[in-house]
What we know:
Blueprint: H1 6-11, H2 39-43, H3 67-78, H4 91-97, H5 99-103, H6 107-114, H7 116-122, H8 134-139, H9 147-150, H10 159-174, H11 201-210, H12 216-232, H13 258-269, E1 273-278, E2 288-293, H14 296-313, H15 323-337, H16 342-355, H17 362-365
Antiparallel strand pairs: 1-2
Helix pairs in contact: 4-6, 11-12, 11-14, 12-13, 12-15, 13-15, 14-15
Amino acid sequence: MPPLNPFCALRMLPVRARPSFPVRQHLHRQPLQRCFADQAATNNPNALPEAASQTGGAPNENQEDHVSEEAAKMAKATGGSGPDMDVGTPVQEILAEEKDTLKTAPQVMKDTVKDPQTKENAKPSTGTRQFSTMARRMQGKMGMASEAGVLDRAMIPSAEQRAVFAEEQFNMAVTPTVLQNLPLPTLPIPARSQQEHRYDPVVEQVTNLLMVDGKKAAAQRNMAHILSVLRTAPAPTYNPVRNLLPGAPPSSHLPLNPVLYLTLAIDSIAPLLRIRSQRGAAGGGVALQIPVPLGLRQRRRQAMMWILDAVEKKKSRSSGRNTFAQRVAEELIGVVEGKSGVWVKRDAVHKLATTARSNLNFGSKGRR
């Protein structure tokens, strides 16, 4: 049997080392207690101590009674009838008793004291009310459903009264107010009164022809400048060689109506037809010139394209974004005065169409 070693058993036992410094034990702190006592704390521990009373008192303490309160106490002591504390004492009675205060009172108060009728009205009413408050007290108890049954029949409007009221309300709704400057539109609405066609057809077509790259706002600005120049420019001088449309107004009237000015210039140089070339129709590969009549919008478009071509060939005499519109306006004025080169193009087209007038029916009869 091998010998037992006691040190092996001691190694398995936990051994705690003793600390090198003493450990303080936590002390339980006692709550603070009062070190004094007074009479209020003795009787009621939860009561707060009161401040010592002073001889003079606070500024708002120990005030004298009001005049009405003092008069009521005196009347109670002497057995008389004092003022009603719920109503209050009228100022006229106080001024009548205090002569010194009456001397410094306003003149209006002095007159009310001297006037017996005013003094009688100033006295508080001692009788009962001339009206009953039963309806006000019963109003909170009554429901909304039972109001019609409790009210008097005379207070409910009759059928005739309701009809008259309804008719008055209808007339007020139908009658136009002061703010309505324009009358109601007549039906059917004219084509020019619709939103899509609210502009003059010539102005709208010229604006679309002035538009570049879809910039409608820039075209409208140029159109407004053109009309402004036509309105502010001097009256044009008619050329007897270049005849305008029949029925043209006097030249002095044109600046007063710039839209008419623009329409007259465009319609005067608008061609009545165009020349269409038919290749090989004349035989031997020679093209045949065929006049084709144009509609109103086609004529105005051709005239405006001629004006724009003439404007592009002219040089600008100034700088700015309104230079193009200024040149267009000057060209329109030149057309009315007969100085523009567009008249030459119109005369050339009409002369060629007159020469080829025998070819008008070329398409209807077929090829020859």
